[in-house]
Design goal:
This protein is mostly helical. It is built from three helices and no strands.
Length: about 70
């Protein structure tokens, strides 16, 4: 497992200490994992939409009309 360090302002740190029963490292790990899952879903949907949007949805008549403008 890799370690990271993050900075927390003093006010937040003191509040965290009030809830010493919370395993803050575990909480943050779970939160990061959840956010990564959300971002991966968004990313996979974005690629699907990007492919869909790249298609030409104009009819032959539409294309002909645009040529004459």
């Amino acid at each position: 497992m890799t370690n990271i360090t993050l900075s927390i302002d003093e006010k937040t740190y003191l509040k965290m200490k009030k809830f010493s029963e919370v395993k803050w490292s575990s909480f943050v790990r779970q939160l990061i994992s959840k956010r990564i899952e959300e971002l991966e879903k968004i990313e996979s949907n974005f690629y699907a939409d990007k492919e869909l949007l790249s298609k030409n949805w104009l009819s032959k008549e539409d294309c002909d009309a645009w040529k004459n403008l």
